[in-house]
């Protein structure tokens, strides 16, 4: 049986003439931080002070003892690296084993009979990129960094939400594997469902030792009590297992997520032989298709899972830490559980990051989160010449085989924004016929997916209209990225179009106040204070934030707390405006994927969960607008429209109370509409004329209520509305059941109170509130649960409460 010796201990990092203890998996930055040799780049304006780390070469060393490589009855010993970041030369006892230039691949070296000093010499990523650029020539990108010349996490070179911290190191596990005769070099389970029968076609690749070349081998596979076996023909075998009455895996909100243990064992033929090698994964039975057929609206992009058409409620995912080796399985699970609890059913892994750790996909399998996986190309023209082309293909093959057992994986995507960039960002004329990546996205990658994983759909890019017959970002065809609104317009303009599938759109806000205080210690916070500006990486980011506020509110002067609150409000409202509009137009629009759910450090960004893991108001708003059932009031050409959205599998009988209200809280008119909405469908109807608010007065608004769901419509911007001075009472009570770690905050409104927000982190850095923005009418009461601030009194709570005030 194959034996494994982990080599995660006893590593050192060479720093000048000395050796520092090194953490493996890890990276140079985290080792230097542990040793106290660099300041924390996440704090203040420290980031530029550590730029030198990415500019120089580094060496990791460890002794490999004779006992580690002793065969002890095994014919072969391999040294296996699951991830080297990035350009490295590996030597053992002075013998060069090989050279690597790809962070996203695993590497295996035969070290049979060898031991001694193991060295991994990492070149500067900048030097490696420069050497490749000298071979391929210049290519354009959107940032002044050379990330397209090296197969490395692009965002470590900085992005419009991330710092420039160019890493190096052994970022994934390393081990010795000792084996004899043969080993399982690759296992590809192709999982499909036909009626009530699940089928697993297991395709196996075998590597043999020289002594095992002529041995007779058999592969056995078992799943759900079904077993099959097949003889190995040279280095390959194929087994088919038909599993009756399988329970289907569903996305969250559509059903359960049953998982089955699949085991594959390699044995040598003969009586009672011990297994040579084994492989185990959990799989799920489901079919996934992508309906891209043409219709009267253009070209669709609709996910169909187990025959059910799905409106995708998605988020984009970036690496959860700029130093990804720090992301533990527990951290993945926490962040993904938060994501699922926000009503999300799909996570898109963006192409400037990494193929995530198996723990990420395991959690998605269990939580019912569909995964859209980008191949790792983003916002640049990528050379297609060697040495990059061979690396790209090897990387794709490695990761398709590694990830395909996961039922949560529903789509392979060729790139992020590069097809759009080629057509629209002045790349095409400057390239003058040079390669730019099109051959990857339209030829190489779809061929790899078709060969290795034909059970899943592939799309060439995001955005992509499906062919060059249409503009790559045409909203009527395929996937669409909506960035003009954030960059130049008011969020109300999300309602001006109905794309077929919105795979990116977003609006910025700063992180939580406690996150800012930790990240900017001692700084007097202001939108333009040094630390705030440094932790704002977007071009004219603060200008866009301010213009977004000014369109709806009076921009606060010299009141950072108020500015912070209003930017959070506008972020939440902007995303809600887009999602409510597009959900109301299902099935023409078949999904929204918000940019973005998470951050990799403390920064003003589009995230719903900030870099310290704190929830922004946007998170709670996602939970509302991504719920199975949603009420929304949409502006229409002939007055407001009520849309009742039902994404549940059951019909919805919804008596909706419509009220035309005055700013002083009195009711001008009301009506109950008995609305029936079928499963997975939307009901739309115009609001009766007598309930339409008078937009000339600035003193009327419309509210729709049903069973705890609420929608509001103001016909004028907030700064033009006659808001009363908000009045409300605050009481702090012990929760029912005697939970000593939490309190309940009871707010009783005496006037209209719009977008009330309890910023729990102001009560304590670990305090969390279970609610986001709330609007109360006079006489209404809200009960908020706060954990982590059990000693908070009513005065402290009132100081942490913010709401919209009159202009």
What does this structure look like?
Helix 4 (329-341) runs parallel beside helix 5 (358-367), helix 6 (388-403) packs parallel to helix 9 and helix 14 runs parallel beside helix 15. Strand 36 (700-706) and strand 37 (709-713) form a beta hairpin. The protein has a six-stranded antiparallel beta sheet with strand order 3-2-4-9-6-7. The protein has a six-stranded parallel beta sheet with strand order 27-26-25-24-23-30. The protein has 16 helices and 44 strands. The chain has 807 residues and is of the alpha+beta class. The model has no long low-confidence stretch (mean pLDDT 96). It is globular and about 90 Å long.
In short:
This protein is an alpha+beta fold and 807 residues long.
Shape: globular
Task: State which percent range the strand residues make up.
Answer: 25-35%
Helix count from the secondary structure assignment:
16
Assign the structural class, choosing from mainly alpha, mainly beta, alpha/beta, alpha+beta, or little secondary structure: alpha+beta
Measured as a percent range, the helix fraction is: 10-25%
Kindly, what is the distance between the CA atoms of the first and last residues, rounded to a whole number of angstroms? Answer: 75 Å
Task: Please tally the β strands and state the result.
Answer: 44
On the 0 to 100 scale, the average pLDDT is 96
Strands ordered across the widest β-sheet: 3-2-4-9-6-7
What is the radius of gyration?
A: 28 Å
